[in-house]
Specification:
By secondary structure, the protein is α+β, with helices and mostly antiparallel strands. Helices cover 26% and strands 34% of the residues.
């Protein structure tokens, strides 16, 4: 009887050790799963924050002055209105390249809201698309490229590069009228260009 009792006691201790090891293994696996899920959640949260910052911050910025031109007045009886607006765009500090073929612009004033048709051939820009597309809507095109990192026009606005934008308003903007051009890149917040035509319109006008 004594020998049997001792054998049972030894067997019970072995079972306890096996159960303890099983608990340790299960706890280790569970901890690994929890830590993995935590790391995954942290990475997703970080990506969300970066994405939100990128979308809320302005990618494009206005560089220099904005000019209003009158190109249609040929006689003194013709109303002197601004029919063309010129301005220069660059990238904000720390911003990544912007594909201008995916950028949209909208013109508005007190009486109208007009989407600006982009330049033709935007799907395969290999040269400056300075030709304004035909149509009834106001239109825009890239008319100059400065500081291109590759030495040639690509349609993608890069850091330190500058694009001169020409917007044609077929209806004309009368003297003393205020207008707005909203520029919306595919990534980043939109920027607004709000200016007022001076009381006396000449061939070239500095807009404030």
């Amino acid at each position: 009887m004594s020998s049997k009792d001792q054998n049972d006691a030894g067997f019970t201790g072995l079972e306890a050790a096996i159960v303890l090891i099983a608990f340790v293994v299960v706890a280790a696996v569970f901890s690994y799963v929890v830590l993995g899920a935590g790391f995954f959640t942290t990475q997703k949260a970080q990506q969300t924050v970066y994405s939100a910052v990128g979308q809320s911050s302005s990618t494009l910025e206005l560089i220099g002055n904005v000019y209003g031109l009158n190109t249609s007045a040929t006689t003194p009886s013709t109303p002197m209105e601004v029919d063309t607006v010129n301005f220069t765009l660059g990238l904000a500090a720390g911003a990544t390249a912007v594909d201008m073929s995916k950028t949209t612009m909208v013109y508005s004033d007190a009486n109208s809201l007009i989407p600006l048709a982009g330049p033709s051939g935007t799907t395969a820009w290999t040269a400056l698309p300075t030709n304004l597309p035909t149509g009834t809507n106001a239109q825009w095109a890239i008319t100059a490229d400065q500081n291109s990192p590759t030495g040639k026009f690509t349609g993608s606005l890069n850091p330190n590069e500058q694009y001169t934008i020409t917007v044609y308003i077929p209806t004309g903007i009368p003297a003393n009228d205020k207008f707005n051009i909203q520029i919306s890149p595919s990534i980043g917040a939109s920027i607004s260009l709000t200016r007022t035509v001076p009381g006396t319109v000449t061939a070239v006008n500095l807009l404030y």
